[in-house]
Amino acid sequence: MTTVNWERESGDRVEEFAAALILLDNPKGNRITPSRGDGGIDLQVESDGQWDIYQVKKFAHTLTRSQKNQIKESWERFLAETLPLKDVRSWTLVIPWDPTREQLAWLDGLTNGYTFEVHWLGRAQLDGLAAGRPAVVDYYFGDGGQRITSLMEQMLALGNGTPTDQQGAGVIERIVERQQQILEALSHIDPFYKYVVDIRTGNANDVEESQLHADARGASFIQYVQISEEQYAGIRVLPLSAESPWLRPIGGTFVFTPPPGSDQAEALADFLNYGTGFTAMPGELTDVKGPPGLVEPGAGLFSVFPVYAESSMPPLELQVNSPGEGVILRLPLTNIKAVSAPRGDGFSLTAEDASGTLSFGFKRRTYEGRGQETFNFRAQSCVGKYPSDVLPAITFLSQMDGENEVSLGVRGGRPLLKPLTGENASRNRASALVSFLEDLILIQQHTHEPLKIPDLEACSQNERDAVGAIAKMLRGEKAEGRWNTFTTDGIDVEHPMFSKPSRITLVTEEPMSLTLEGVRTELDAWMRVSTSGVPEARSLGTDGLLTVSVTDGKLISEMIEAPSDTILADLQTASPQSCSSFCGESAL
């Protein structure tokens, strides 16, 4: 096993190595970026709301006055910048040198007067940590890096065809087994990453964005390699510590060459300014840095998909502010994702309402000393969703009239950003849909059958009109319409009404029902329908029913009390004619 010669190694490498030992033992720990440099590495590890702080220095000999001053500066910076913000449990000085009694007394005098613990983690303890992680020692001071490269090359070689000495039954099983052995060896000797390979059916060039996001979750690097005409390998490199990408970076240099003025050029600018992604961008990859053997430099088409970390932002909402009235609508947002630009202070944020009906995007950057902010909204299909879930988002869109202001704010609180004004091009359509949704919500209160938003393009005009008419009746209003035809078996085709036309009235009482997209839903309310008009043409169907056309027809519907059980039983056993009465303006 490789040993650590603390005195002979460079100070920077010793500091990074000591930090790696601590971070790998505390995978959620991370570095603190100091406001000013005084040497060393600051680490913080959170546990149950409390924090352990580590100050790593490279000093491998007894401390000099200059080195003590550096430690003192680090301590004072910790007191000024970290202690006021965190519930600190301990502060530990990490140096590859075991203290003398005098040095411990000096440290005690420096840090005395605080309730949290103060420790000196010296060479003996670092040697103990190193003994438990030989792969870390080999990587920094031995040949671990070369062994990783060799194993990676062996693994990828297995996907380049079947070796001639492995023909016959069980070849695939042996290849997969060998791959697994190499992966286990890789994960054993690479102290910073774990390697996972999935063999999948399909083409590596056809991986969908949703699969990319799923594979990228928790990974520092992913790659797809076609291993046969029908299968490809998905390779995921998972960090063993939050700081693995710092301890062993993964990256490269990309040179993108989109045509000037093209949509690709605009997408590249948005990526640089706001961190948004792009697809199929022409360019070249150069100067690749680890993991070894996975990616080769060269030209191609490149896609960038932002991998969103869990947002640390507070709960957010969109706010509509009406001049003179204040906030008139608050729309809570969910699925909030934020990503920063690779350069500058730009960032972008996306979110949606709880129903997924409204997608919200926000971009911000500083340009020529001034902040630039952009909102955008996009309505998604609401077909098949519950009206009460969708109504808040559609109401929001209906309020964007060019006068009301829209802002992003903390849920239930004040705006975070300067309000913007703008008119929604589909505002009128959204306003009409608000009324339709409110009607469906009211009708839902009168049936146990769930009502979902129909495809309005697939609904007939009569079905759409019926929603508003039924809602009117349920509110206690009368619904009016036109009466064009009626069908009956109680009138003879030679009835005098057809030779001497006169106005007739038909009154029916029946349970309310709603038909949408051909599906009939019964309601727990009754209605009276009064129709009047002048009968004109008639035709007798093969089923014996007479269809009569009506001119100047009028229809008035209203909600009535449900009949008693006795009357209801009589109506159910009676013929249709007994439920109706005909009368004319002149005697029939």
Note the topology.
Blueprint lengths: L10 H15 L4 E3 L8 E7 L2 E7 L8 H18 L5 E7 L6 H11 L5 E5 L1 H10 L1 H8 L2 H14 L13 H19 L3 E9 L7 H8 L4 E6 L4 E9 L4 H4 L3 E6 L6 H12 L3 E12 L8 E7 L11 E7 L3 E7 L1 E7 L6 E6 L5 E10 L2 E10 L7 H12 L2 E10 L9 E4 L3 H18 L16 H14 L4 E3 L3 E4 L7 H4 L4 E13 L2 E22 L5 E15 L4 H9 L7 E4 L4
Parallel strand pairs: 3-4, 4-5
Antiparallel strand pairs: 1-2, 2-3, 6-8, 7-8, 9-10, 10-11, 12-13, 12-18, 14-15, 15-16, 16-17, 18-19, 20-24, 21-24, 22-23, 22-25, 23-24
Helix pairs in contact: 6-7, 11-12, 12-13
Structural account:
This protein has 588 residues and is α+β, with helices and mostly antiparallel strands. Helices cover 30% and strands 34% of the residues. The protein contains 15 helices and 25 strands. It has helices at 11-25, 65-82, 101-111, 123-132, 134-141, 144-157, 171-189, 209-216, 244-247, 263-274, 387-398, 427-444, 461-474, 496-499, 565-573, and strands spanning 30-32, 41-47, 50-56, 88-94, 117-121, 193-201, 221-226, 231-239, 251-256, 278-289, 298-304, 316-322, 326-332, 334-340, 347-352, 358-367, 370-379, 401-410, 420-423, 479-481, 485-488, 504-516, 519-540, 546-560, 581-584. Strands 20, 21, 22, 23, 24 and 25 form a six-stranded antiparallel β-sheet that branches. Strands 1-2-3-4-5 form a five-stranded mixed β-sheet. Strand 7 and strand 8 (231-239) form a beta hairpin. Residues 159-164 and 570-588 have low confidence and may be disordered.
